[in-house]
Amino acid sequence: MTLTIPVLTDVHLITCIVQRGRADAVVQAAIEAGAEGATIHFARGTGLREKLGLLAVAVNAEKEVISIAVSRDQLNYVFERMFLAGKLDTPGMGFMYVTPVERAATHIPPEILEKLIGER
Amino acid sequence: MAEEIRIKYSDYRRETRVRKRSLSFSKLTRLAAKRRAEAGAPRWRRVHLNAPQVVNILSPYIGGKVGEQFRAIAPLAVYLAVFQLLVLHQHIEQPWSVFGGLIATLVGLMLFMEGLRLGLMPFGETIGHYLPRHHGLTAVLVVALMLGMGVTFAEPAIGALRAAGALVQPQRAPYLYAMLNGWAHWLVLAVAIGVGLAAIIGMLMFLRSWSLKIPVTLCTLGALGLTVLMVDDPALAPLVGLAWDCGGVTTGPVTVPLVLALGIGVAGSAGKGESSLVGFGIVTLASLLPVLAVLALGLLLAALVTPDQAMALGRAAAETSWTSKTPAAEIISALRAILPLVVFLALVARFARAAIADRPVLIFGIALALAGMALFNIGLSYGLAALGGQTGNVVPGAFAFLPGLNGSPMYDYGIGVAVAVLFAVVLGFGATIAEPALNAMGATVETLSNGAFGKRMLIWAVSAGVATGLGLGVLKLVLALPLWWFLLPGYGLALVMTWLSTETFVNVGWDSAGVTTGPVTVPLVLAMGLGFGGAVGAVDGFGLLALASLGPILSVLGLGLFIRLRHRLSAIPILLTDPQEAGS
């Protein structure tokens, strides 16, 4: 018997960079909007902070980078919710972008796999 | 015939919720390039924000900082006030000045911590990183010594110790009186030398991966030996409490992060950064070595002057301290504490050829630290210390007759003493469980022990330890028991457990003692102890902090051993062995 890997298509990756300590609120909003999970890693970043002069103290140079894979159906809604939750329309609060993902793979419960493949 | 129009629900939702407009990033960069060219500036342009945007940026920043300090101070202040009003039926004297003092403490602590992060921490990290690249081990160790000494002078809680000197009666404890008044500078210097030596040993520990067990055992045995030597002499005995309390005072919000930053930087550039235990141990040594140094200073003082001379020494100093009551004194002391440290750090940075970026922010940070420390000192004397002193004065009224206190004794002797001890236990528990440093440590310990020693478990163990320690301390003051009755068996037991425990738990257990005594707890407990001691007629009110530091060592080491034993009994693979021992 050959081994099958269920490969997911129609996946988009939302990456959102916010100040250290603020990722949780954004992830929470994404999960509520239907995202399945999130990966967060720490980073350091430059940008507006260096152009602010003394106000730079209010913007943390340490960042958290949130990566969330969502389906094409979810993309717009999750993107909006994350943008609003992160208050990204405020200067210095962060940056987010979407990249198409060619394929992805993870554990998919067998019964769901059976059902979806049967439908096709 | 009706025509059917189909609209996707998702389109409808999108239109009504958030409007999206596409904008080419190329247009944006083109515009930016044009503007730069017009301004004639080759690099980034300074961004100017309007008022609402400034508010938007600053409000979460300031809100978070205020909230952090508020959560540390408010519960304690409320608890003290409620206890005083409900259990002891006493009104708070000068409530508005105490309230103003608390606000000043809160704002001061907030500014100081932020100033420390912006103005002093960058020095510590870059120096630690660059120094070993250009200079040998000797230079690194000399810098560590100087830095350890420098930060002690900047430590806000040291001020609380100096303030305590005014409350000691010269006739009953001449050497203690002299030490806190005439010799106060020598006292701080002794503490500073202790912290400096701790920084050196800690640095060597990082670099050579030494075990903490040996230095801890040597320091503890030395301090206990000197203690036993001193309790024989009635004139020297009161110094023991002060000396052991000094250990708790030193490991405050300046010393720990700065020395740690230096140590981690050095360890990192020496290629030893991978050990998960990096950063532990220094706190322990920085609380044990000052004890040793102060005890030695006491012996020196006793060798140099007789008790009568010591009394005169203290009095002469008391008369000359002319700045002690003006608000300017706090500002001067803040300047004296922070500026030399900054100058020293700047010189070392030059020496280490470390480039410090962002000069305006750095200067702003130093200014914040100065303002914060001055405010904190002012707030301390009017707010926390006043409240702690008042409570300390009033709580003994629960079991003893106090002149000027209506209805005292309020309860029977036994019940009254129980009320007083209970008060201290709850205070210790509440003050510790809210300590932010402990929370951070808990997370580290959980990772180190692969989850076997959870974060909550550590926090509860340490809080219970501090609570027991404070309770015992109050009992000691009430019954006028000598401090060494508690110190000798306590630290003896701690040493035995140290040799039975794994390296991880030795580090965690001993460090948890230093971590818990923060800038809010120390002045409060010191003031309370002194007020308490004064009210029950004890020679001195010291020793509370010493016992509050001993408690968590015993509770954490004990719990660590218990967990390991349980794992061994249930034949589950032991998760608590540390990486070094498991690897060898």
Automatic annotation (TrEMBL), chain A:
PROSITE patterns: PII_GLNB_DOM. SMART domains: P-II (SM00938). This is Nitrogen regulatory protein P-II. The lineage of its organism: Bacteria, Pseudomonadati, Pseudomonadota, Alphaproteobacteria, Rhodospirillales.
Automatic annotation (TrEMBL), chain B:
Keywords: Membrane, Transmembrane, Transmembrane helix. It comes from the Bacteria. InterPro entries: UmpAB (IPR011435). The chain crosses the membrane at residues 72-92, 98-116, 137-163, 183-207, 214-231, 251-270, 277-305, 331-349, 361-385, 413-438, 458-477, 483-501, 513-536, 542-563. The keyword Lyase does not apply. Pfam families: DUF1538. This is DUF1538 domain-containing protein.
